[in-house]
Recover the amino acids of this structure.
């Protein structure tokens, strides 16, 4: 199916059917303005989406019709209707409670939910590789649940890499102008340190450079974080900066990649500098080094009201032959089904996917 440069088709996975994904999908796709910018299609189960739509109507009065389809070509892509490529894994009897009185499902990770959510992801990858959708967006899955179902992956990123045959990839988190990519993600801290090697750091710097260009930054400025406190203090606290990170930076500079400081930057200052405009993107050495600053910035809890005012930010898998953007939060099992989930991160992910799809089409011309 040809790309509409004004309204790309987005394949949006529903996430774990017993998590917050169905509710977030209904809240996001019930907004008419979205359909002027893209053509969204949920990959999931009609029963879950119908339950979530009924619960949202009971809670807020906003009504949306669910349109189950068997193929992308059957979707209507019009405001007031949410198209769902119905996978048929979840039936109404699988969903506890009644939508007229929303309350948490309380199911947590289940084999059924894991199998369903895994198959949604496989399907959207298949659609993207075939060119039937222009970009993919993922709601949250439970890593525990998909492993319970026998699919031994540590997350979306690894599933996408496997089913697209991608060897060099990384995760990027983004919240407005703050962007972070990772040398490693879902491994132990000890293994993360062991993975800080010149070739991997250089690969991630290259991917970061291309990621910035993909969102329209012509001459990216890249900050590269150190691994050790104070970047090792000339070897006093570790030698990774000297033996692995600096050689990677030198090689990237030789390729013409923009690294303003020409050396690793201490992790305790690099993100403040990024927020100040020093860098367009930061290369973090491991999962929490990059995730913590992004979530401190994007997640805002209202202590007086006892709720999250914002759960913002997106997760982009870089290096793939297809576009994948995700929410930057979990399944929210503790309150899934209660109507309390905040859709801001999914809206951010949709916005990012639209931008990436349009920019990719522009660069292919």
């Amino acid at each position: 199916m040809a790309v509409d440069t004004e309204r790309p088709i987005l394949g949006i996975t529903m996430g774990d059917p017993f998590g917050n994904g169905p509710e977030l999908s209904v809240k996001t796709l019930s907004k008419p303005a979205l359909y002027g910018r893209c053509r969204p299609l949920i990959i999931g189960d009609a029963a879950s989406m119908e339950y979530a739509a009924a619960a949202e109507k009971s809670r807020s009065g906003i009504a949306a019709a669910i349109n189950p389809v068997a193929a992308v070509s059957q979707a209507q892509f019009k405001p007031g209707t949410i198209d769902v490529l119905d996978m048929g894994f979840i039936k109404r009897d699988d969903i506890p409670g009644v939508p007229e009185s929303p309350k948490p499902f309380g199911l947590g990770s289940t084999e059924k939910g894991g199998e369903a959510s895994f198959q949604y992801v496989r399907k959207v990858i298949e659609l993207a590789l075939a060119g039937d959708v222009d970009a993919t967006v993922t709601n949250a899955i439970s890593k525990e649940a998909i492993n319970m179902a026998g699919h031994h992956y540590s997350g979306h990123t690894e599933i996408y890499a496997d089913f697209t045959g991608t060897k060099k990839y990384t995760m990027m988190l983004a919240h407005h102008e703050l962007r972070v990519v990772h040398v490693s993600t879902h491994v132990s801290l000890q293994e993360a340190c062991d993975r800080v090697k010149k070739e991997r750091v250089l690969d991630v710097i290259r991917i970061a450079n291309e990621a910035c260009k993909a969102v329209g930054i012509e001459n990216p400025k890249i900050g590269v974080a150190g691994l050790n406190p104070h970047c090792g203090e000339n070897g006093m606290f570790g030698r990774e900066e000297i033996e692995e990170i600096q050689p990677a930076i030198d090689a990237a500079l030789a390729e013409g990649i923009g690294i303003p400081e020409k050396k690793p930057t201490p992790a305790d200052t690099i993100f403040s500098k990024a927020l100040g405009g020093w860098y367009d993107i930061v290369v973090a050495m491991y999962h929490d080094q990059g995730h913590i600053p992004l979530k401190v910035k994007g997640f805002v809890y209202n202590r007086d009201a006892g709720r999250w005012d914002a759960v913002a930010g997106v997760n982009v898998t870089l290096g793939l032959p297809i576009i994948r953007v995700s929410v930057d939060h979990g399944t929210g099992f503790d309150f899934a089904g209660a109507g309390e989930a905040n859709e801001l991160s999914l809206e951010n992910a949709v916005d990012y996917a639209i931008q990436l799809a349009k920019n990719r089409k522009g660069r292919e011309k």
